[in-house]
Design a protein that fits this description.
By secondary structure, the protein is an alpha/beta fold. It contains 15 helices and 17 strands. The chain has three domains: 158 residues, Rossmann fold (3-Layer(aba) Sandwich), CATH 3.40.50; 176 residues, 3-Layer(aba) Sandwich (Rossmann fold), CATH 3.40.50.300; 104 residues, K homology (KH) domain (GMP Synthetase, Chain A, domain 3, 2-Layer Sandwich). The longest helix has 24 residues. The structure holds guanosine-5'-diphosphate (2 copies).
Length: 461
Amino acid sequence: MALPVVAIIGRPNVGKSTLVNRLTGMMDAIVHDEPGVTRDRTYREAFWRDRDFMVVDTGGLVFDDDTEFLPLIREQAMLALAESCAAIMVVDGKEGPNASDEAIAMWLRQQSVPVLLAVNKCESVDQGLMQASEFWTLGLGEPYAVSGIHGNGTGELLDELVNHLPTTDILEERGEIRVAIVGRPNVGKSSLLNAFVGESRAIVSPISGTTRDTIDMMVERGEQRYRLIDTAGIRKKKQVEYGPEFFGINRAFKAIRRADVVLLVIDALDGVTEQDQKLAGRIAEDGRACVVVVNKWDAVEKDAYTIYEYDKQMKDRLHFTDWAETVYVSAMTGQRVEKILDLVDTAAEQHKRRVTTAVINEVIGEALSWHTPPTTRQGRQGRIYYGTQVTSQPPTIALFINDPKLFGDTFRRYMEGQFRKHLGFTGTPLKILWRGKKIREVERSPNRAVKVKTNATLSSR
Ligand code: GDP
Ligand code: GDP
């Protein structure tokens, strides 16, 4: 679940980073500076009372002096503000308000997020409140006298801040799609990651995953958030101190397990390899949704047949995931990269989808009217009594039948094909459980055994 973000804004040297260190306190250990990826913003986890949130330090903001880097820094602050649910403007209580503060305050007053005003360097007990009161002129409401160095006043500031954080329910409702990007080394995973992050509408914040060395990253597009799983495993290879295990297949397997949707990245120049097949097998086995991304499409020499040949190769050689959509992209030129997230949305939706029992039984009825289940030489025929979807993620349909032995692979594949044909479920594996009467009895018998034992124990007392 994504944490709410609070932006820290102010001109240089007022004590923003000192205050951030104070607010994030012990949580400081979980810091991820990834210049370039984070657009040079620093995100840290913080909490106050029972609320967790992220603090983003926007860097010193200057409005009245247009040297080379300033527009960039301003853009940073604006991007940070765009994803924040509240902002803290920091000013220097020792110096008093100046023209830069006024310019920043004016800009902040035009934004739609609530702004708290922290007057820093107010550690002096007798002067603090007076210093702070000078900042009423900024028009941002009550100035809070604080000291980043000594910590006084920060409690009141945080008490007020948490009133502006959205409740957890709202965030949960919004939901996020967990996406793993997997593939052999050099297929272009980190190039793709950068392409996602580079899209103008993407807002990115690295957040800690399950352990210190797995770092997830949030990307946002419209209303939808995507958690890119274990981006550390994708990006950090250029740094030497990581052993081969860091990028090994086990790491990919772990990412697959945590994902809703897996992007299986294939190198168009190499085609589908054995390792790709292994990954596809694991994705299907774990019941994850999948989009096959054939990358480096720019480098392929194409004629009128190329795309059909590739499509055929994907279906044949990636038969474990033959239900997945394939998209041909170039992380380098950006061609169709945008389309990947559209396919991720669809796959995630299908992965979660539920179909009513009535609809499933309609499909079964239709399927049986074209093909009756096989009959043995002894004249026993397979029977399907009814079906129902028992769970989703992945969608799982239980078929209640007389005897699983009467249903061979051909007929099972036929039924799965019928469900796919009539119900779609594009991008997600579909599990079918063939529940025979006998199996159900076997399943129940351990319980019975327990019950008998309990009775025996009771009567012996
Ligand atoms: P930033 O550029 O806004 O991030 O500011 P820094 O956090 O780097 O602090 C700028 C200077 O102000 C440093 O010399 C800090 O030691 C000093 N400073 C920060 N907070 C306080 C404070 O609460 N009281 C005093 N007296 N000095 C502070
Ligand atoms: P990773 O190991 O899977 O993360 O792969 P990288 O993203 O590091 O890319 C490996 C190599 O492939 C680099 O030299 C990239 O420049 C190149 N590459 C990545 N994407 C593309 C692409 O779309 N087209 C072409 N021609 N080269 C690409």
